[in-house]
Amino acid sequence: MAAQIKTRERIVQASLELFNTQGERNVTTNHIAAHLGMSPGNLYYHFRNKQAIIAELFSQYESRVDVVLRVPEGRPMTVEDKTFYLEALLAAMWQFRFMHRDLEHLLESDPELAARYRQFAQRCLSHATAIYQAFAEVGILRMSAAQIEALTLNSWIIMTSWVRFLCTTRGDPGDLSEEMLRRGIYQVLALEGGYLTPDAEAAVQALYARLYVPLEQIITP
């Protein structure tokens, strides 16, 4: 049983690597098997098709984001929490970047995954709203309920479309870097600029400087 679990994990990790560097559409189960030096039949013993591998990767991504998007219990929010959220989301985006790049194709190819993703999106929006509300309650942001709703939605749009934006401006799916994704996180933070309270301004400006990546490093001339 342990050997089977190890093989299954190897398939998942190899698939993630190939999807990220080559693009999910360009990778078949035969490519994955060859990459691992195993027969296609051995791969099919663990996963019936490529969609099953993608579903497993989505489960990992979903669990990771669900853990991150939580309001801390038993204490008020701080600017350090903002750093945590942004850095943790950046790490998840980078590790599972193929999902953001190929999202429409993935959902069109698998109705079950599409239904799971819709639930995931609704959950993320709900949790992100609660996080912004908590920042407003402690005086880091000054926002109305309508502004929180708009900021949550705009942040989600940037987060889920940033990788595709990079691919359209650079062309090569293997040409992405974590620094390029960091600029996407910066764009989310920049949306909050007009809502910062004076008490939070200095700390958040330091976070701006930490996340900023020059545009010429992002877009290919």
UniProtKB/TrEMBL annotation:
Name the record gives this protein: TetR/AcrR family transcriptional regulator
DNA-binding region positions on the chain: 28-47
Domain HTH tetR-type: from-to ranges: 5-65
Keywords: DNA-binding
One Pfam family here: TetR_N
UniProt xrefs under PANTHER family: HTH-TYPE TRANSCRIPTIONAL REGULATOR RUTR, HTH-TYPE TRANSCRIPTIONAL REGULATOR UIDR
